[in-house]
Predict the structure.
Amino acid sequence: MTYLLLSVLCSVSIALILKYNDTKSGNAILLLTGNYFAATITTLILSFSDLNFDISLPLLALGALLAVFFVGSFFAFTKAVTAAGTALATVSSRLSVFLPALLSIFLYNEEPTPLHIVGYVLTFATLWLFYKSLKTDKSKSLNMSDFMYLFLLLIGIGVSDFGMKIFEEEFAGASKSMFLFSIFGFSFLYTLGISIIKKIKADKQTVLRGMILGVPNIFSSFFLIGALEVLEGYKTFPLVNIGVIVLTGIAARIFFKEKLNNYGLLSIASGIAAIVLMNI
């Protein structure tokens, strides 16, 4: 349970830092570049203390592929926080639990109960309530691209989380630190390349916030893998996600005075119920 708690706290920190960056109008790509630079250095240091330092070509390829989803979902998260607020953006990101949970069932024969199936149905009900919350919120003016970011956030994080499951199942005994180094190393190269191509002007404060963001970012994945070593995927993912939703909602209310309308509150309640059912 320690790994689960630490993964939750790291993920909550990520959401709050993204919100703070939004209040400072920091460039999202520049933030991510600093984030992945710090994460790459951190995992490299961890790798030096890892007795199993080798990395195979298949593992490197998996890291490169997952890096695409890491960068895409993180960028979508920054946009979703701006569009929908920290709490609802987090609900969208954490409902991604249904994707790795379903994939774990179909690909690794983890058997769901009828309650799990009800939880999956509630997931889609939550998405509808989430949509109604945003549409009826007069303080927000959303367009199709905003909803697209929310959708990409859900899919991107779901695939990224399942990547941790693939590592645990298919690369038993491989270096966890080197695996994360490959993901964040490629993510840094991708975001750096985008920054250069788009000729984004460097901003020290945004880069610094990104480097601070990189620490909980890397350790959220590190602790998630640790949790998967002792718990099944269909238990681990719901527990982590429900904790992140609850704590982020509370923190956003305290630190950023974010308020939710009735549909928003119902979407959080429904999301929590869905995750609880998928965890039973």
Q: What stands out?
A: The mean pLDDT is 83. The two ends are 16 Å apart (CA to CA). The chain has eleven helices and no strands.
